[in-house]
Design a protein that fits this description.
Staphylococal_nuclease_OB-fold, endonuclease activity, 8 strands, TNase-like domain-containing protein, alpha+beta, hydrolase activity, two-stranded antiparallel sheet, five-stranded mixed barrel, Thermonucl_AS
Length: 155
């Protein structure tokens, strides 16, 4: 009985996982994947990359994600609850690497603190601090560039 209960609890508190193929990268935190015959737009969980229209940093973030996940890459999605736009939200893994965390570590994305629930908050904080201290990417200017969420709100 105890083992059965543990298995049921583990299933309830573990994010669903899907293996899919990358079809395209839209921007620094959004990609389209194909699962069987269905295309799915995926918003990377717990991070927020600069918008494409937000100076050169948005284009740089998109290129970083394209470099990490070329079209045709097989990735594992750790699915989170859909966002308010109905998009699939996930942490994305490729070759054993958490792509979301790599984008924060390289300074190509900010931690999206408003939506960090369900992700490893301490690790994301550590990676963002490292990028900030090294002056990487969005942190190459003191205090970092305008946050994407503020940029969107100002438009």
């Amino acid at each position: 009985m105890g083992k059965v209960l543990l298995i049921i609890l583990a299933a309830l508190f573990t994010d669903p996982v899907n293996t899919v193929e990358v079809l395209s990268v839209e921007d620094g935190d959004t990609l389209t994947v194909i699962e069987a015959t269905r295309a799915i737009k995926v918003r990377l969980a717990c991070i927020d990359a600069p918008e494409i229209s937000q100076s050169s940093y948005g284009k740089s973030a998109r290129e970083a994600l394209k470099h990490l996940l070329p079209n045709g890459s097989q990735v594992i999605l750790r699915i989170k609850p859909n966002d308010r736009y109905g998009r699939t939200v996930a942490e994305v893994f490729h070759n054993g690497n958490n792509i979301n965390k790599l984008l924060v570590k390289s300074g190509d994305s900010f931690v999206y603190w408003q939506y960090i629930n369900g992700c490893d908050r301490p690790d994301y904080a550590r990676l963002e601090t490292m990028a900030r201290l090294q002056g990487s990417g969005v942190w190459s200017v003191p205090g970092g560039i305008q946050r994407p969420w503020d940029y969107r709100q100002s438009r």
